[in-house]
Amino acid sequence: MKSQMARTWRPLLVPLAGLAFLLFLACGGLGDMGEPPQGQGEGPGGRAQALALSPQEELDLGERAYAQVLSENRNRVLPATDRRVQRVRTVAGQIEKAAEIEPLQREINLKVKGYTFEWEANVVEEDQVNAFCLPAGKIVVYTGIFKVAQNDDQLATVMSHEIAHALAHHSSERVAREESGRVSLLTSKAYARQQESEADHIGIFLMTFAGYNPDEGVRFWLQMARAKTGSGQVPEFLSDHPSDRQRMVAMEAWAPRARAAKKAFDEGNIAPAPGRTR
Predict the structure, then answer these.
(1) Is 162 a known active-site residue?
(2) Fewer C-beta neighbours within 10 Å, C or N terminus of the chain?
(3) What is the pLDDT of residues 44-57, one digit of tens each?
(4) DSSP 8-state symbol, 4
């Protein structure tokens, strides 16, 4: 096995609600970062999760990709004074604080110890219903999302989902899967749907602990379904995402659990971390 792994720049597709956008992974010229890949462990879904990138690699990749995205859209990045930017950054800040809550990390089995998240959010003037969060917390929202997200709770639904991908190291996991060579069209799509459902699940808890209404998550996907009516939506078995109906059913089940967890946290009725006492 080579001591240094040469990776090339390549796009990683992470679609939002069937509308694909490119997550550019800056994988070129890193070589040995001095830290071993994370290897095999238990991911936030309680499943085995092989990761290809070390914490430092994730940070470097996120920074490089974010710089590229902003450079390519330099004339369309909205100023900080724009009300939409202020909304996005406020929601992002609330979600970021929620992600730091240790009992919540345990609740959804997030593995963030040793990782650095340099949170930053920008909005790009583009008529696409898109948003994404790069590794290490670099967030981009396209203005088209405001046509569907009618309030900050629904905006939090989208952003919590995208931030969940970064917290769950899904990009690193996809790189590991690609490098394993065990990828086919059907297994790849099933794998992507698994990650999307996982991000939905994490996202509902994140937005709830951030102070947003998880019931609005269901309403958001209902609006997405209506927006796609007559658009020739791809059948679920060929899609990278769960169907909108499946998403809404799952979120309806998760929302009361997320509210109960938040209530227990607010009231101090939480189990201490292993090795700790109250």
Answers:
(1) yes
(2) N
(3) 767 788 889 999 99
(4) S
CA-nearest of 197, 192, 125, 131 to 163 is 131
Taking 50 as the threshold, does the pLDDT of residue 38 lie above it?
no
Looking at the 3D structure of the chain, how many domains does it have?
Answer: 1
For residue 121, the enclosing domain spans 10-28+46-266
Catalytic residue among 58, 107, 162, 198: 162
Residue 16: name the closest of 136, 143, 161, 214 by CA.
161
pLDDT band at 188; cut points 50, 70, 90: low
| Of residues 126, 121, 211, the one with CA closest to residue 166 | 121
Task: Tabulate helix, strand, coil % of the chain (nearest 5).
Answer: 50, 15, 40
Q: Please say whether the beta carbons of 166 and 159 come within 8 A.
A: no
pTM to 2 decimal places = 0.80
Which residues in 238-268 are b (16+ Cβ under 10 Å) and which e?
ebbbbbbeebbebbeebbeebbebbeebeee
In-domain check, residue 278 = no
Report d(CA 193, CA 82) in Å as an integer: 34
Question: Lowest-confidence range among 85-94, 150-159, 193-202, 253-262?
Answer: 193-202
Give per-residue pLDDT as tens, 118-147. 999 999 999 988 899 999 999 999 999 999
81 part of a folded domain: yes
- Does pLDDT of 29 surpass 70? no
Quick one: tokens of 183? 């990828």
Report in angstroms the alpha-carbon separations of 116 from 1, 5, 112: 28, 22, 8
* List of residues 6+ apart from 32 with CB closer than 8 A: 3, 4, 5
